[in-house]
Amino acid sequence: MKRNIVQVFTLVWLLLLSVTVLAQGEAFTPVRNAIRGGSSRELSQHFGSTVELSFDGDKQSYSATQAEFVMKDFFAKNAPAGFDFVHYGGSNEGTPYAVGKYVSKTGAYRMFVKMKSDRGTLVIDTIDFTKE
């Protein structure tokens, strides 16, 4: 009897975990599409009021409008040739994040995107590009 309860609990836990990971992946779908298209305008639709952008360790915090222009400049200099998220996760507090690989003609970058909840909506809090 005890063994059955443990098995049922484990199964339910795994199902909930898989649903959480799928939901996190879905939250990043429009972000992925905007990055693939090199569209700073589409990407900015998912920015919080402030966004931390980091390029090879040089971090700065920007307003959503400023961050849009910074990303527009980045995409102009490093037009996307390929992009996809390779890992989705969440912190213990439930903050979703994704790690991806951004490829341009000038090189490849590991990309980290962290979201946060703002009035019940997930918005981009941090984007970090690290040249590989």
Automatic annotation (TrEMBL):
First and last residue of the signal peptide: 1-23
Domain of life: Bacteria
Record's keyword terms, sorted: Signal
Protein name listed in UniProt: DUF4783 domain-containing protein
Organism of provenance: Hymenobacter elongatus
